């Protein structure tokens, strides 16, 4: 029953290991696309907005599906499904920002299939995990024919739907250092459950007493370069964790956004949300750092 | 909400008979129809809202190895099929010949061996367009110098379609001239789409040997479609069979005949093979029957203490590029003139102007009861605007103005006769269920600047069940519906009806009506519908007309069977028919209840060698045509409670209390299910659903990423109540209910949001109240929601 939008012709290969995936990517060249959960790419192909010549399916790469603590680094495999990130107690303990974000990413059906790596590589400006990883200053681990390289998530995206991952390369892992005294949170406004963000903000703070020792702010869908608000972070570092300071950080974050009007909202509203949601995320992050939320 | 395990012999809760196949995935929808040798069609659509077609080159598409035919407007022109009549006596291009007039308009049709090849071949068709300026803003469609969209029509020099009015203009103006208080408000009911889960589609199978066309099509009106095909295509009507199989939602979207259906027929004739055409989601949203798009200005005249005296409304109705709305001929604005709603007033008048724009055609759909949705929303918004200005409680203001029970049957100022109602009782019940006083106290206790709460009320009156035929027809076909009831020798029955279910549960409720009338189990009644070769003529299911019309026909035909049974029973019992009494399922001799015959015994006897009295034909079968004497007027009182975050503009519906009075309920479970769906629709329209257009006429709601439907997460646990005021003229006292909640609920949600925004001095804001729009309303800079956000 119902409507079937049909993609153009494409070749399909199923990778059995990371090495095999890299070999397939080398074989098909720049016209190949990696398909993970497929919840962004496949709809785009059905609408014929994307027309890869070949798909390299990496869904069998169980080796990339994990969430673990490697010493003081939280490591998330690129094939970790959204649902698994949401279900991970380890993530909840160290970075509740990801549970906040995952709760408002799409719906359970999409979260069961969609992946962390796929979200980052899709690089949709409205995608939530990019801002969350930017807020906590994570690094992306990319493998290619010449070996492994690490790229800070804050430098990972080069524009809408564009990343530093080159043809022939594969994002394999995202790593986040775990530091004491931290709290994090994510706040999002959507028109309806499962819709893309009208705007969203993620915040991470590390407190030394009542002083903000370090802070990270990520912004979604508001035209913030690299999903990131460095000026507001800079303002927070060394400031007292008072509400007026958080409000000022929100103002600074919003001021530097350049949102674009669309049917989700006009630019002034999105700019307002950038500030409002930054403040709200900071408040929760501070409360969590203090152990009171 | 329990369902008894033993189905009732008649009315009452029982599981839907059709669900056994639906929950097993064994329904048969149009896309499940696969015929030997079947080909697949795909439509090439215009990327422009308004453009002249310079040339169409199909050579490359025709050369595709799996393509069997490419059809253009030129092909159809040769068959005199390039244009077809609409249900509003306008014309619509099947495939564009001269110009394209909306984005998504049909330009060419490819028939290929499979869906993929058909879709691939669309990209091989080269169309050269010369873009023209588009008419997007309905309010400026009649501006001097506006591009003329319908230059195909002789004498058409502007974008005007019709002017239509109802009520007494002079009397209304006189009341306004003497009124203590007059308030006016511009109110937009934006363009929305019914978005049934199953999109429109057809399988056309023309048999060149027999000359018979079999058309599987998920239409809500199979008989009307058959007649229109006969009139338009010149095919003899008895050689056309329309089969509407299981239908995955209609909501008015599946009433019209769409170009794709005609193309499928032509494709089948041309190729000699069956041709399937199924829309994809974007095609459905972009090109098929939308709903509303009413730009209204309401004015209410009242006394200072809140007695409404008159209502005056002016409307610009955006019908898109072709006037294709489906509604009774006499009423180009549908039943909008029921806009005085549930209130007593001295006078009322409306003036509606229909205009062409470069948008998809339509207007009457989405459970609107022929524009009553717009009417109910307008009046319920105006009552709240009046309450705002008079600083009165909106519940109190409504109570003061509601029609009183003793006023029924009530002749309305715009020409309706409301059949029955007890409005104050329904409103009081809703207020009591909601705990209205406590809610107001909670609201009053809210500190300023913080989270907001709002309480919204709406009271609606519907007018459903079109005809009677003397007032109502579509393309000259009177709105009366047939029913046939056949009783087999063993007492099992087959009911054949003209209306077509799209999810309403007809196979259950109609069986229950027969069960109620004949006293046999509903499971003993097979309901046949949706096949024009197997069912009597009728106009179909929309405007909540099935129960008021075909439900009545079913009761009437069952009573005819019962009377025939009385004759047979009298022969069996050797008594005068006048000496027999009926009890459910059985005729017995008056004064001696032990002397009787069950309907099953009588059925067998009616087919047996029993000698029947002079004039009694034998068998119990009967037919009828039901021409309703009037519409039925269901009503209801809704209370919605919302929480609003003023910092983000987000709205959360906390509670929704719905008291519905649809007269006698045949299956309360099905009624509640329909109310649930309609309430969700109301939340959708009030808060998120929208088809807007940018300045070039690009459709901004062409996928489910852009056109947002509500989910369970946006819906509270519904709190339902009921009162029962039977319709005095309907055989079983029932009124239609399929659209009640869709009609009544949007106003309750919007009124609740605006009630919450009152501290910010916001009196009105248009739907949909998305977070952005709510926030902008608080800022005093509302968004024009029908246009692109810039």
Automatic annotation (TrEMBL), chain B:
<dbReference type="Pfam" id="PF02738">
    <property type="entry name" value="MoCoBD_1"/>
</dbReference>
<keyword id="KW-0560">Oxidoreductase</keyword>
<dbReference type="GO" id="GO:0008805">
    <property type="term" value="F:carbon-monoxide oxygenase activity"/>
</dbReference>
<feature type="domain" description="Aldehyde oxidase/xanthine dehydrogenase a/b hammerhead">
    <location>
        <begin position="24"/>
        <end position="133"/>
    </location>
</feature>
<protein>
    <submittedName>
        <fullName>Aerobic carbon-monoxide dehydrogenase large subunit</fullName>
        <ecNumber>1.2.5.3</ecNumber>
    </submittedName>
</protein>
<keyword id="KW-0500">Molybdenum</keyword>
<dbReference type="InterPro" id="IPR037165">
    <property type="entry name" value="AldOxase/xan_DH_Mopterin-bd_sf"/>
</dbReference>
<dbReference type="InterPro" id="IPR012780">
    <property type="entry name" value="CO_Mo_DH_lsu"/>
</dbReference>
<dbReference type="Pfam" id="PF01315">
    <property type="entry name" value="Ald_Xan_dh_C"/>
</dbReference>
<dbReference type="Pfam" id="PF20256">
    <property type="entry name" value="MoCoBD_2"/>
</dbReference>
<dbReference type="InterPro" id="IPR008274">
    <property type="entry name" value="AldOxase/xan_DH_MoCoBD1"/>
</dbReference>
<dbReference type="InterPro" id="IPR036856">
    <property type="entry name" value="Ald_Oxase/Xan_DH_a/b_sf"/>
</dbReference>
<dbReference type="InterPro" id="IPR046867">
    <property type="entry name" value="AldOxase/xan_DH_MoCoBD2"/>
</dbReference>
<dbReference type="InterPro" id="IPR016208">
    <property type="entry name" value="Ald_Oxase/xanthine_DH-like"/>
</dbReference>
<dbReference type="InterPro" id="IPR000674">
    <property type="entry name" value="Ald_Oxase/Xan_DH_a/b"/>
</dbReference>
């Amino acid at each position: 029953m119902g409507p079937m939008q049909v993609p153009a012709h494409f070749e399909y290969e199923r990778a059995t290991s990371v090495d095999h995936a890299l070999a397939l990517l080398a074989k098909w060249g720049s016209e190949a696309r990696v398909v993970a959960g497929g919840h962004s790419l496949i709809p785009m192909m059905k609408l014929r907005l994307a027309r890869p010549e070949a798909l390299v399916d990496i869904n069998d790469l169980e080796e990339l599906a994990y969430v673990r603590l490697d010493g003081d680094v939280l490591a998330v495999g690129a094939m970790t499904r959204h649902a698994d990130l949401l279900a991970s107690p380890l993530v909840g303990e160290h970075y509740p920002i990801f549970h906040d974000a995952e709760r408002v990413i799409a719906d359970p059906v999409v979260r069961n299939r969609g992946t962390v790596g796929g979200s980052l590589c899709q690089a949709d400006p409205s995608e939530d995990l990019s801002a969350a990883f930017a807020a906590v200053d994570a690094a992306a681990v990319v493998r290619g024919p010449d070996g492994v390289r690490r790229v800070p998530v804050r430098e990972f995206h080069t524009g809408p739907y564009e990343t530093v991952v080159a043809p022939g390369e594969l994002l394999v892992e995202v790593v986040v250092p775990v530091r004491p005294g931290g709290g994090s949170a994510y706040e999002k406004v959507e028109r309806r459950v499962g819709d893309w963000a009208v705007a969203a903000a993620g915040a991470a703070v590390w407190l030394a007493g009542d002083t903000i020792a370090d802070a990270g702010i990520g912004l979604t869908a508001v035209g913030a370069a690299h999903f990131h608000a460095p000026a507001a972070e800079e303002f927070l570092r060394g400031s007292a964790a008072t509400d007026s300071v958080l409000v000022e950080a929100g103002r600074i974050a919003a001021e530097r956004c350049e949102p674009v009007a669309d049917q989700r909202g006009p630019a002034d509203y999105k700019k307002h949300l950038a500030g409002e949601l930054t403040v709200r995320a900071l408040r929760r992050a501070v409360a969590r750092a203090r152990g009171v939320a | 909400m329990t369902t008894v395990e033993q189905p009732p012999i008649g009315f009452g809760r029982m599981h839907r008979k059709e669900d056994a196949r639906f929950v097993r995935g064994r329904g048969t929808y149009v896309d499940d129809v696969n015929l030997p040798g079947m080909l697949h069609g795909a439509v090439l659509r215009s990327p422009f809202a308004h453009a002249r077609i310079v040339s169409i080159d199909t050579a490359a598409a025709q050369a595709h190895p799996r393509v069997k035919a490419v059809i253009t407007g030129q092909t159809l022109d040769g068959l005199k099929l390039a244009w077809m009549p609409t249900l509003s006596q306008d014309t619509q291009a099947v495939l564009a010949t001269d110009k394209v007039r909306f984005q998504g308009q049909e330009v060419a049709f490819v028939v290929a061996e499979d869906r993929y090849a058909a879709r691939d071949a669309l990209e091989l068709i080269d169309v050269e367009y010369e873009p023209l300026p588009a008419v997007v803003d309905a309010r400026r469609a009649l501006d001097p110098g506006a591009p003329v969209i319908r230059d195909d029509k002789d004498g058409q020099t502007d974008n005007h379609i019709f002017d239509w009015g109802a009520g007494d203009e002079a009397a209304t103006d006189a009341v306004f001239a003497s009124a203590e208080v007059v308030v006016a408000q511009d109110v937009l009911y934006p363009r929305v789409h019914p978005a049934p889960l199953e999109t429109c589609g057809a399988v056309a199978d023309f048999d060149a040997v027999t000359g018979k066309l079999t058309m599987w099509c998920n239409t809500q009106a199979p008989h009307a479609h058959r007649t229109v095909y006969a009139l338009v295509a010149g095919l003899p009507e008895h050689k056309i069979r329309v089969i509407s199989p299981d239908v995955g939602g209609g909501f008015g979207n599946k009433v019209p005949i769409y170009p794709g259906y005609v193309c499928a027929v032509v494709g089948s004739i041309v190729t000699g093979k069956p041709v399937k055409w199924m829309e994809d989601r974007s095609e459905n949203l972009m090109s098929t029957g939308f709903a509303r798009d009413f730009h209204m200005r309401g004015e209410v005249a009242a006394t200072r203490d809140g007695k409404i005296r008159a209502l005056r409304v002016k409307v610009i109705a955006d019908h898109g590029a072709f006037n294709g709305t489906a509604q009774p001929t006499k009423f180009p604005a549908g039943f909008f003139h029921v806009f005085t709603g549930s209130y007593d007033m001295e006078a009322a008048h409306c003036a509606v102007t229909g205009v062409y724009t470069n948008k998809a055609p339509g207007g009457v759909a989405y459970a609107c009861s022929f524009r009553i949705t717009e009417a109910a929303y307008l009046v319920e918004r105006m009552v709240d605007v009046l309450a705002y200005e008079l600083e009165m409680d909106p519940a109190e203001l409504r109570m003061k103005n509601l029609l009183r029970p003793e006023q029924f049957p009530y002749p309305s100022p715009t020409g309706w006769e409301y059949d029955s109602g007890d409005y104050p009782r329904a409103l009081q019940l809703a207020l009591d269920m909601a705990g209205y006083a406590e809610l107001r106290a909670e609201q009053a206790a809210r500190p300023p600047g913080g989270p907001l709460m709002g309480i919204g009320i709406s009271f609606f009156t519907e007018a459903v069940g079109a005809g009677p035929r003397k007032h109502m027809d579509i393309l000259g076909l009177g709105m009366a519906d047939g029913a046939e009831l056949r009783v087999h020798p063993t007492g099992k029955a087959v009911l054949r009806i003209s209306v077509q279910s799209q999810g309403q549960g007809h196979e259950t409720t109609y069986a229950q009506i027969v069960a109620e009338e004949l006293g046999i189990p509903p499971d003993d009644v097979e309901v046949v519908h949706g096949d024009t070769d197997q069912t009597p003529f009728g106009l179909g299911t929309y405007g909540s007309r099935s129960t008021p019309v075909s439900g009545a026909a079913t009761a009437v035909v069952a009573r005819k069977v019962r009377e025939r049974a009385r004759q047979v029973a009298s022969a069996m019992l050797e008594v005068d028919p006048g000496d027999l009494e009926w009890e459910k399922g059985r005729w017995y001799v008056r004064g001696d209840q032990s002397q009787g015959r069950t309907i099953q015994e009588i059925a067998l006897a009616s087919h047996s060698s029993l000698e029947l009295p002079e004039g009694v034909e034998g068998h119990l079968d009967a037919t009828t045509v039901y021409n309703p004497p009037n519409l039925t007027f269901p009503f209801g009182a809704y209370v919605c409670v919302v929480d609003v975050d003023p910092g983000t503009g987000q709205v959360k519906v906390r509670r929704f209390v719905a008291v519905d009075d649809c007269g006698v309920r045949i299956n309360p479970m099905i009624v509640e299910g329909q109310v649930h769906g309609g309430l969700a629709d109301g939340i959708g329209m009030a808060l998120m659903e929208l088809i807007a257009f940018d300045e070039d006429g690009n459709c901004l709601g062409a996928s489910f990423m852009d056109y947002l439907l509500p989910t369970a997460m946006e819906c509270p646990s519904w709190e339902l109540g009921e009162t029962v005021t039977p319709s005095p003229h309907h055989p079983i006292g029932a009124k239609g209910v399929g659209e009640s909640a869709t009609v009544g609920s949007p106003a309750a949600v919007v009124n609740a949001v605006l009630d919450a925004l009152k501290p910010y001095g916001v009196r009105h804001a248009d739907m949909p109240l998305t977070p952005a729009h709510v926030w902008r309303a608080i800022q005093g800079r509302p968004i024009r929601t029908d246009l692109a956000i810039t």
